[in-house]
Amino acid sequence: MNPSSSIRIHGIHYTLPERQVGLEQLSAEGRLVSTPETMRDFGFGDCRVSNVPATQLASTTLKALLERHGVDPLEVGLLINASVLPTSSLVPRGESLAEFPTGDNAHLGLFRFSSTRLQDELGLSNARTVGLSELGCVSLSHAVWLAHAVMEMEDLKYALCVNADVFPDGIKREVVYNVCSDSACAVLLSRDPEGLRLKTYHTLTRGYYWDPDGHQNELLAAYFPTGKRVLEKTFKASGLAREEIKLLIPHNVSLRSWEILSKFTGIPLEKIYTENIRPKGHSVAADNWINLKDVIDRGLVKKGDHVMMFSFGLGAHWGCSIVQI
Amino acid sequence: MHLFLTGVTGAVGMEMARWIVRNTPKARVYALIRAPSPVVLKARWSKLAAKLWPDVSARPPEGQFIPVLGDISQPGLGLSPEDAARLASEVTHVIHSAANVELDAPLPEARAANVDGTRHVFEVVRSFRRLERVGYVSTLFVAGKRPGRFLETDAVHASDFVNPYEQSKYEAEHLVRGLMKEMPIAMYRLAYLIGRDDGEVTRYNSMHSLMRLFYQGHVGAFPGTPDSRMDLSSNDYAAAALLTLFLEHYQPGRTFHIGNGDAGLRLQDFIDTMTEVSAESERRWAQGVFLPPDVVDEDTYTLLRRTLLQTQNKQSHEVIRLGDTMYGHLLANQIFDAAPVHALLGERVKPPPAKQLLRDVLRHCVATDWGRNRI
Predict the structure, then answer these.
(1) What number of C-beta contacts closer than 8 Å exist between A and B?
(2) Residue A206: its chain B contacts at CB < 8 A?
(3) Given this model, what pLDDT does residue A110 score?
(4) Which of A265, A314, B98, B257 could form a disulfide with B6 if both were Cys (CB 3.0 to 4.6 A apart)?
């Protein structure tokens, strides 16, 4: 990344549904693959379940972020909607302007994109909109990286990135041994020097693992060695030593996986912020940023500290960044 | 020499048969082979001979090898009275190499073949009136989890075992050692045999299964240290060393280690060699999509193992299962001392360089899809 960049992460806001569902209930509803005991052993507790669609979560989260920071929607030049699940990024049936297209226009239901509706709904009329999918759990981090790059290229004052995902009724909430919550998180980028600085973002895609079911065994074997190398490359690219990292901000995959990765990498588990895994679950692509906001709000990091953010998305993508508070 | 040989259909037994034909043309070999009838016995021997000596002109002359119908799991080896009488009156030398070498066979099954079978063999051998020498084929891995340097003179230890196979061989050694008072027996402990010097695999075993899973990107970590040793060797070397020691350096009551000793393959060299050769034919290795497994400490591996066993992933479970039969040796950081044998055999019979052997064996495995296709 450009070391003299003036782009900063200006604000973060997230929404977690209040409704909490325990592992036993998830299991009874057939929404786990493993037993509740295994998921508990892996570090999970309750998961958050939304009563409203992802598009609505995205909208309320973005609106709150803009209001909190007093940003005029017309000054936002870019909106990236980084919702992961296809059902999250399409405006759902009940919110359409007309009845859901039927007959000859049934296929138009596939084109009801939420990013453009968000632009209209929030008055972001000067924002170019981008829908970013197919990046799994690294999508919001990728979106921030892309927004950063676009802001470097264009004379934009603000950019917004959002991830909102809600698991549809009836499908499993356990994704490769991780219990997934519904959530939304929005990130505002600006040129305000008081913001957080994205210093490095290293990413690695290994398309061989594109099929998370068919190649799951290989993926489990590759996850830790690849994660270790991504961490090492991020350190190298940043020029920072391990000791200079105040905290590693994870995405909320299983605590067990962090215990193992900690041992693989030699980063002590105490330096990994894992407190949110049990109460909040893994919220697809939002949890790195939810955790970052929480550690700042809780005063666990101070101005000038460096934190590392690591995530992995099915597809398969490993992403690791270093942010200066 | 009138040799009674058990285990001729095994990896080292086959190689001993080849060596005998090349080096001791006057020897007569009575090869114990399991078969339901004399007709099937003859057919099995013909098939084995065709495999051992594809070139007809290289085959042993008629009468040098005499297949004998029998089964070590049976008292008296299930020999016919005629065969029993013939062996008792003619055999001068015995090599007992028949064994159940499945690392994960249940202990009772391993004991039945390796302890009871050995007892049955020696009960018969006891009746051999012209007996001069006996060789008992064992394994270096009777060391179990005993850490450090394992010597030829080491016999008893209180360490646990990595798998039932080696426990049964340890118990069989104890049995054989007891018999040394009444019979001239030498013991030969072999390394882990993975193929012939040219890489051909005649018997696929757990190591080949692990190599396949490695090649396919299923192995993420090995426990141990980069310097943990894997004493892998070739069938040819094991047979040549064993028979040379047996015929030229025979010492009843002594144990010989046939392996690489201090030149045993380092775990990191195993990983690097596997990675290098895998990249020749699998572009995911060549392009760095598949990454070499990490070497991790015991705690890390234990946690990873426990976690993978909590998943529903069958291939991951298979990697764990295979690892459970072998990795204990990596953690014990063992070296099987082979200096005395290397000194005895000198330049005449040397173990193949382990890295080159591994390269050739993996190339063979890939070319044949682990024995599914012919080259």
Answers:
(1) 73
(2) 289
(3) 84
(4) B98
Q: Domain limits at A181?
A: 8-190
- CB within 8 Å: B303 and A256: yes
pLDDT digits (tens, 9 = 90+) for B130-142: 999 999 999 999 9
Q: Are residues A131 and A227 in the same domain?
A: no
Count how many domains chain A has. Answer: 2
pLDDT in tens, B322-356: 999 999 999 998 999 999 999 999 999 999 999 99
Q: For residue A69, how many other CB atoms are within 10 A of its CB? A: 14
Residue stretches of chain B with pLDDT short of 50 = none
Burial of residue A2, with CB atoms counted within 10 A of its CB: 0-12 exposed, 13-18 middle, 19 or more buried: exposed
Closest chain B CA to residue A228: B294
Q: Do A34 and B311 touch (CB under 8 A)?
A: yes
Cα of A12 vs its chain's centroid, Å: 12
* Residue in B closest to A226 by C-alpha: B291
Q: What is the CATH number of the domain that holds A16?
A: 3.40.47.10
The answer to whether B216 contacts A218, with C-beta atoms less than 8 Å apart, is yes
CA dihedral A290, A296, A299, A304 (to 10 degrees): 150
How far does B365 lie from chain A, in Å, by closest CA? 20
Name chain B contacts of A38, Cβ cutoff 8 Å.
310
Q: CA-CA distance, A200 to B47, in Å (whole number)?
A: 65
CA distances from A238 to A250, A272, A308 (A): 18, 19, 10
Q: Do A218 and B218 touch (CB under 8 A)?
A: yes
Nearest to A226 among B291, B307, B308 (CB): B291
How far from each other are the two terminal CA atoms of chain A, in whole angstroms?
16
Using a CB–CB cut-off of 8 Å, the residues of B that contact A are 216-221, 284, 289-294, 296-297, 299-300, 303-304, 307-308, 310-316, 319
- DSSP-derived letter for residue B290 is S
Which residues of B216-349 form beta strands (DSSP E)? 221-223, 229-230, 232-234, 255-258, 265-266, 294-296, 334-336
The answer to whether B269 and B229 have CB atoms below 8 angstroms apart is no
**B265 forms bridges with which residues in the sheet?**
B230
Return the SS3 of B314.
helix
